[in-house]
Amino acid sequence: MPRTTTVAEKRLRNITDLLTTAVTLLSELDDAFGTPFLRPISKTTASLINLMQNCKRNKDQCVQLLEGLHGVLYAIIDLHLKSQTAGTLPPATLVHIGQFTETVHKIHTFVEAQQDGSKFRIFFRQGEMNSLLKACLSGLDTATRVFKIETGTMILNSIEDMRLRTADLHKELLEFISTHSDGILSDNSSSAIIATLSSEPSPRIAILGGGGMGKTTLVRAALHHPHISSTFEHRYFVAAESASTSTELAALIGLHIGLNSGTDLLRPVITMRGAERPAKVRWSRPFLQPLKPLSNAAARETFRDITDHLVEEEDMIQLLQLTDNMPLAVELVAHLTDYEEPSAILERWATEKTSSLAIGYDRRSNLDASIGMSLSSPRITPGPRSLLSLLSMLPDGPNTLLPPLKF
């Protein structure tokens, strides 16, 4: 006689299925909008799903934590859908999401400690384990109250209701992302990407252009185009900055999408700084031209969308002349106007460009100079500048030498 599935096992199966979908939704949001904290939350949640398969103790408490976790994840996704600024969340909300990220890590520690032979169990006494569980529940309760208020909706408690809502949410999210990607997908490059992906059995596409030209933004938007999302059920964006060899790249792709060694990679689309495609690859034709700077009209529109202050037309034109209409440079300079007057920015620009030539950096591009302007902005104090210097040394940080920061 077959063994009857227990209530706890059904709850575990239900919530892991729901969390698997939630991880997919968070990854798609991260790919489309790059909201801070979404990537660590989604990766930690994915690890939790795997850990629960071997949970030996306190299974009811672990399932309770995962059910609470799913409710908050749904609320965070819903916040993006209801955002007034196309998926961008206000700083106060990001603070709450950052605090919730700490709770997710605590939940991961608690669940990992329930495994046989867990190294965490060696360090935690029973009283400390109970304190950790209370901290997890308290963090979930706080996040539930905060996000319930911000979304204006009740976080669902019924598993069946959550299952139905998650399916609807996935559809809403894809429509939301594709809607807010239309502006990016209006040029010939995007049309060529979509046409090539749709028509060729195994295309290889290289999107070229200098730093800050919007290569990553373009390919992410293409992946969420309605035609592409309806043709390909599963689409993955793999950030490969940390891979320096073809073997490392293959391993990184396999890690993200679960491919076994030797499996063919279908329809790869890469973005690469520069103007030459890697050799010895049969790239799909017609070749895409390297991305060009924004038009004057697009640069002005981008500038106005970013800055919080009204900048006179003449001042804006002078500032945009400093950027060469490169998207990243336009964004950086536009943000500077939130804290400095245009006249002060222009004066500081002239001083720093002269200084960089005097100390032997040859001719830095306007993009490099705009990055330097951001780092030397009056709002950047020595503490954050030191932190940025340390972050650049991490494995996924820049792999080029930067001028030394002044502390």
UniProtKB/TrEMBL annotation:
Stored CDD domains: MLKL_NTD
GO molecular function (one): ADP binding
Transmembrane intervals: none
GO biological process: cell surface receptor signaling pathway
Pfam families recorded: NB-ARC (PF00931)
Superkingdom of origin organism: Eukaryota
Name by which UniProt lists this protein: NB-ARC domain-containing protein
Residue ranges of every copy of the NB-ARC domain listed in the record: 190-259
InterPro entries named among the record's database cross-references: Adaptor_Cbl_N_dom_sf, MLKL-like_MCAfunc, NB-ARC, P-loop_NTPase
